[in-house]
Amino acid sequence: MKAHIAVLPGDGIGPEVIAEGLRVLRAVAARFGHDFELTEAPFGGVAIDLHGDGLPPATLDLCRKADGVLLGAIGGPKWGPSAPVRPEAALLRLRAELGVYANLRPVKVMPALRDASSIKPEVLDGVDLLFVRELTGGLYFGRKSREADRAVDECAYTVGEIERVTRVAGRLARGRRGHITQVDKSNVLETSRLWREVTTRLVRDEFPDVTLEHMLVDSTAMHLIRRPRDFDVILTENLFGDILTDEASMLAGSLGMLPSAAIGDGRRGLYEPIHGSAPDIAGKGIANPCGTLLSAALLLRHSLGLDNEAAAIEAAVAGAITQGARTADLATAGTTPLTTREMGDAVLAALSGG
Ligand code: NAD
Q: Which positions ≥6 away from 90 have C-beta within 8 Å?
């Protein structure tokens, strides 16, 4: 297969983890006989420095024409809250421009990493859940205003925005254990009451084989670490999903392990690890690249329909971890952590059966 993948390394550890993603994608192309054209472009802080714009027109054009987009991470102290142009705004704009409204964040606990989590191992056995987070609505995209002694962020959702992401959750739940937990704060928020109404009607009418429960976000935060294996698909609005997925990353052992996919109505998607640019470890070559490698796997599966190739990357990451490969974020006392590059080597070795 011939495919064009736009690659946006971004800032901080972004270029370090993306370098490993590129090596793994090239290895997959060679092993399975594909022709992946991998084109890099500036995005985020690095693009602000070069072009004064976090999402330059040429980068947007490249992403629009690509079959899929692989992103590292963006942001950093250099472009902090008082900077006139901010990298995070470029990411929100890219998601909106690509029309990717559903963010999929799978959380699986690899048995070999039971001890890397701060949660008791017996609570982690069998955890396999999938967040479906609404990505282009809510507080992040509402009207904003600022006066000297007052600030406003508006939270708005339309029926259409809730319906389309609920359909994604319904389709994915069908391929899993058939259960959706919809998360909200309906005891105080009007938008949350709309979420409850719309999801109840849509799941009843279009997914009668899927079960739906509603859960308040505060209680979800508690149950996620108390009984995580009870969750199957967790459907949330934008802000709650952002927060809960960072919490859930602790089940998997590290923020560096978790991939994500942002998809819309077509096949094209935006794939990135859920972590940020990690300025505290950037440039040291010690970041965990696994979240990026697993994001590349999601790209192959969702945007290119290459299930076997995606599964090969996932198995190679699991294989390397099972063999004992650990970057610093996963290493336990007494073990020597691998560098980002060495972790990439371990996954490549597992990929080629070595
Ligand atoms: P962060 O995710 O960058 O880092 C949080 C902690 O996790 C840090 O201690 C970091 O060292 C560690 N960590 C993160 N990824 C890791 C990896 N792959 N391997 C090992 N350790 C890892 O979050 P933050 O520090 O709150 O944010 C830093 C910057 O990233 C900010 O500018 C923020 O806006 C930005 N950010 C970007 C994205 C994105 O690009 N999608 C997402 C979140 C945050």
A: 43, 44, 47, 48, 53, 54, 55, 74
For 1-105+254-354, CATH number out of 3.90.1150.10, 3.30.420.40, 3.40.718.10, 1.10.3210.10 equals 3.40.718.10
Is 246 noted as a catalytic residue in this protein? yes
Q: Is 275 in the pocket of ligand 1 (CB under 6 A)?
A: yes
CA of 13 to the centre of ligand 1 (A): 9
Residue 209 CA to residue 296 CA, distance in Å, equals 31
32-67 pLDDT, tens digit each: 999 999 999 999 999 999 999 999 999 999 999 999
Domain ranges of the chain: 1-105+254-354, 118-251
Decide yes or no: CATH 1.25.40.10 for domain 118-251. Answer: no
Residue 234 beta carbon below 6 angstroms from any ligand 1 atom: no
Domains 1-105+254-354 and 118-251 belong to one CATH topology: yes
Q: Quick: pLDDT tens for 291-303.
A: 999 999 999 999 9
What pLDDT is stored for residue 3 in this prediction?
A: 97
Task: State which ligand 1 atom lies nearest to the alpha carbon of 74.
Answer: 40
Please give the number of the atom of ligand 1 that sits closest to the Cα of 73: 40
Ligand 1 geometric centre to CA of 255 (Å): 8
**49 in catalytic set:** no
For residues 278 and 269, give the distance between their C-alpha atoms in angstroms, rounded to a whole number. 24
Q: What gap in Å lies between CA 259 and CA 249, rounded to an integer?
A: 10
Q: Residues in the chain, how many?
A: 354
Q: Is 288 in the pocket of ligand 1 (CB under 6 A)?
A: yes
